[in-house]
Amino acid sequence: MINIVLFGKPGAGKGTQAEFLKKKYNLVHLSTGDIFRFNIKNDTELGKLAKTYMDKGDLVPDAVTIQMLESEVDKNPDVAGFLFDGFPRTIAQAKALDLFLNGKKQEITATIALAADDNILVARLLERGKTSGRPDDQDEVKIRNRYDEYNLKTAPLMDFYKAQDKFHAVDGIGSIEEVTARLEAVINSL
């Protein structure tokens, strides 16, 4: 089984690349954003709980997010592996994910960060914002705020996974095909 954490700043191409990787390696793509939306839309118990926090403008606690993720993993017992997108975002979440996977006799195989210059990513998001309808993709100040949040909370994951010899950085700039080839080279070397 192969379990990959794909991370990078907003606009780095995680969603685009996840589509290719899940097909090529027969992985289940677990996007926390998609999982939240599904649970809320379908009025599940976890969705109702998450919504109580979101309605107040609070972040959904790690424990709720992890329960949703565990539920998705449990729904797919016979897959080749998982592609985690948007989770973990903090070291506490990474430790909780390790604990959960260890209980299933699994582990994170590798983490792959799509690296790119902030100015290039800002331009990408502003362009995406013209068609996405997402207000957070249409305001450079909000975009840079998201990067500050990423640097503060998510970037320390690099050291966490480097200490386990599971961290790989991939240049996220270039054509979709070029970036995909770089990702495949890392995965094929595992």
What does this structure look like?
Belongs to the adenylate kinase family. AMP binds at residues 32, 37, 58-60, 86-89, 93, 134, 146. Residues 31-60 are annotated as: NMP. Its main location: cytoplasm. Keywords: ATP-binding, Cytoplasm, Kinase, Nucleotide biosynthesis, Nucleotide-binding, Transferase. This protein has 190 residues and is an alpha/beta fold. It has one domain: 3-Layer(aba) Sandwich (Rossmann fold), CATH 3.40.50. It is 57% helix and 14% strand. The chain has nine helices and five strands. It has helices spanning 14-25, 32-41, 45-55, 62-74, 91-103, 118-132, 140-154, 156-162, 176-188, and strands at residues 2-8, 28-31, 81-85, 110-115, 167-171. A five-stranded parallel beta sheet has the order 2-3-1-4-5, with helices on both faces. Helix 1 crosses helix 9 (176-188), helix 2 (32-41) crosses helix 3 (45-55) and helix 2 packs across helix 4 (62-74). It is globular, with a radius of gyration of 16 Å. The mean pLDDT is 91.
Task: Describe the structure using short key phrases.
five-stranded parallel β-sheet, AMP kinase activity, alpha/beta, nucleotide-binding, globular, 190 residues, Rossmann fold, ATP-binding
